[in-house]
Each structure stands twice: as C-alpha cells, then as structure tokens.
Design goal:
Helices cover 62% and strands 15% of the residues. It has a three-stranded mixed β-sheet. The protein contains four helices and three strands. By secondary structure, it is of the alpha+beta class.
Length: 103
C-alpha cells in the first residue's frame, strides 16, 4: 500500500484561500499540513477523520487494558472478584460521603 505525500500549504496561502482549501479538505478527507517558512506548524483534518481517530484511540486503549489484564493473569497477579467488588463498594461509599458538606 503506497502512501501519497502529505498535502501541504503555507499559512499565507491558507488565509487567502480558506474556503476553497476547507472544501478540498472535506472532499478528500486527507490531512492538510500548514507550513510557515517551510516548517509544519499545524495539521488540519476533517471532522469525520477526527471522529475516526478518536474511535481508533479508544479501541487501542481498550485493547491495551485487556492485554495488561491478560498479562497480569498470566503472572498470577489476580484477586477474587468478591474482594474487588467489596473494595469498589467501600471506595464509592467514601467518595459519596466526601461529596456532602458536614453539618
């Protein structure tokens, strides 16, 4: 799979052609690299690409957590589920009591 070169445009050009550039961004879905004196200063992406990126990051975080749990289980670093729920209830009870001011 070949990757096409990134679409770059100077900040000056972007200011001159904002509407046209944004329309192209939405049509292509490709990121747009904004440069200042040849140096990339910002990257613009369309809202759909942004949402896809967030979803991928969320899925990566979930997968990472699952992998961490599986590795802990392989090491025997576990505890009974009842103990976990009891700790969770205690923690929630303390948090609940802290949220109300004392009379």
């Amino acid at each position: 799979m070949s990757q096409e070169p990134p679409h770059t445009i100077s900040l000056t050009e972007f200011r001159r052609q904002t509407a046209e550039t944004l329309e192209e961004l939405h049509e292509t879905g490709q990121p747009l690299f904004l440069t200042n004196h040849g140096k990339t200063e910002a990257v613009l992406i369309d809202p759909q690409s942004w949402n896809q990126l967030l979803k991928a990051l969320e899925q990566f975080g979930t997968a990472t957590g699952i992998l961490r749990g599986l590795r802990a289980a392989d090491r025997g670093d576990t505890r009974p589920i009842q103990e976990y729920f009891e700790d969770l209830r205690r923690t929630n009870r303390r948090a609940h009591l802290r949220s109300y001011p004392k009379p």
